[in-house]
Every structure is written in C-alpha cells, then in structure tokens.
Amino acid sequence: MNSNGGVEIANQSMNELSIKEQESDESVQVTCFSEFSDDVTLHFQIIRLHKQIYAWIGCNSAKFGHLYAAAPTRPSNNVSVTSLIGGDSDNTGLGIARRLVLKTGLNIVLACNIPKNSPMLEAKAEKKLMEKLISLGYIMRKI
To answer: What residues contact residue 25 under an 8 Å CB cut-off, 6+ apart?
Structure first.
C-alpha cells in the first residue's frame, strides 16, 4: 500500500467518526450567563449531558447551595425529586427542579443558593432559566 492510500483511508475513517459523533448528539454543552435586576445578581450555569441537564443558580455569589435531583417516573408521568445536599427545611429550588423535568422530560440535577423565603426571586430565576433553556432548544415552546 502506498502512502496516498493510507492517507485516504485515514481521512475516510476520520470523516466516518465525525459523522457518528454528530449523529449521537452526546456532546456536553456548557452555557454560563448572569442577570442583574432589583439589586441582585443571578448567576446561571447549564450543562447539557445526554438525556440530562445540570443547572446551577447562584445569587450574588458563587456558593453552591442546595442540590436536588429530579427525574420523570413511569408510567404515571409524575416527577420524583430528592434533596442530595441541604434542603432540610429550605425547599428553594425543589419546585424549579420538578418543573424543569415536566417541561423537558429529562433528568435534572439542580444546585441552587437562592435565599430562603424569597419566592419572587425564585420565580424570577426560574423564568430566566426557562427562557435560556428555550433559546438553547432544550425546551420546545408550546404553540
């Protein structure tokens, strides 16, 4: 085999590998952004994995906060949510994780450090997160 034949085979193999990677759609996608309103800065990080989304919402700091895992349960289409870190009496973020599963159908891991007893701030953070997930194509907008 000459060297040109070897190069052609290598190029063909690389092209096939590239096509398979694009078809599998299993790449990790990371998005970070911040929103400032009402004297509060909300920080967001979204990591899209295969059939799963990890999201972090930070309020005025990079503190990790409580960690929740939520997943759809079958066959009844309910959502199961559990607190992995923190969240004993402070359920800030639990509702967001539950609603994310309902809207995406994906498993959700959500870290959240929104202050306790701040329902307006929690609603604002959820709205911004949902807007970003829709713009990224992770949630389909209903017609």
So the answer is: 50
Q: What is the pTM of this model?
A: 0.74
CA 74 to chain centre: 21
pLDDT digits (tens, 9 = 90+) for 110-130: 999 888 888 899 999 999 999
Q: What are the Cα distances from residue 97, in Å, to 67, 109, 128?
A: 10, 7, 14
pLDDT digits (tens, 9 = 90+) for 56-91: 999 988 888 889 999 998 887 789 998 888 766 667
- As given in the structure block, the two tokens for residue 27 are 């790449």
Q: Respond yes or no on whether the N-terminal peptide bond of residue 115 is cis (omega within 30° of 0).
A: no
- Give the whole-angstrom CA distance, residue 140 versus residue 63: 30
Q: Are 46 and 54 in contact (CB under 8 A)?
A: yes
